């Protein structure tokens, strides 16, 4: 449905990665996603701003890393949500 209304190679590629659980080789490791999310949250704190979706992403990245997924593509977040 998303591809129909909002067609994009990104949706198609990451959708396939998630459905097929093809998380290796990582295009962007989950550990790097957590690093970048933490940097965004630090910048938001300095600007006295709130990033609730970044907080949620941080929780999912952290859970994935705790479960040994740190070297997988960030699309493996689907495994933490399942």
Automatic annotation (TrEMBL):
<dbReference type="InterPro" id="IPR008927">
    <property type="entry name" value="6-PGluconate_DH-like_C_sf"/>
</dbReference>
<dbReference type="GO" id="GO:0051287">
    <property type="term" value="F:NAD binding"/>
</dbReference>
<feature type="domain" description="3-hydroxyisobutyrate dehydrogenase-like NAD-binding">
    <location>
        <begin position="12"/>
        <end position="80"/>
    </location>
</feature>
<protein>
    <recommendedName>
        <fullName>3-hydroxyisobutyrate dehydrogenase-like NAD-binding domain-containing protein</fullName>
    </recommendedName>
</protein>
<dbReference type="Pfam" id="PF14833">
    <property type="entry name" value="NAD_binding_11"/>
</dbReference>
<dbReference type="InterPro" id="IPR029154">
    <property type="entry name" value="HIBADH-like_NADP-bd"/>
</dbReference>
<dbReference type="InterPro" id="IPR013328">
    <property type="entry name" value="6PGD_dom2"/>
</dbReference>
<dbReference type="InterPro" id="IPR051265">
    <property type="entry name" value="HIBADH-related_NP60_sf"/>
</dbReference>
């Amino acid at each position: 449905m998303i591809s129909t209304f909002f067609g994009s190679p990104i949706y198609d590629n990451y959708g396939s990665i998630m459905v097929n659980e093809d998380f290796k080789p990582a295009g962007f490791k989950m550990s790097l996603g957590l690093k970048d999310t933490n940097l965004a949250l630090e910048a938001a704190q300095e600007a006295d701003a709130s990033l609730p979706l970044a907080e949620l992403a941080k929780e999912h990245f952290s859970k994935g890393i705790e479960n040994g997924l740190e070297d997988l593509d960030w699309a493996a977040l689907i495994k933490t949500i399942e």
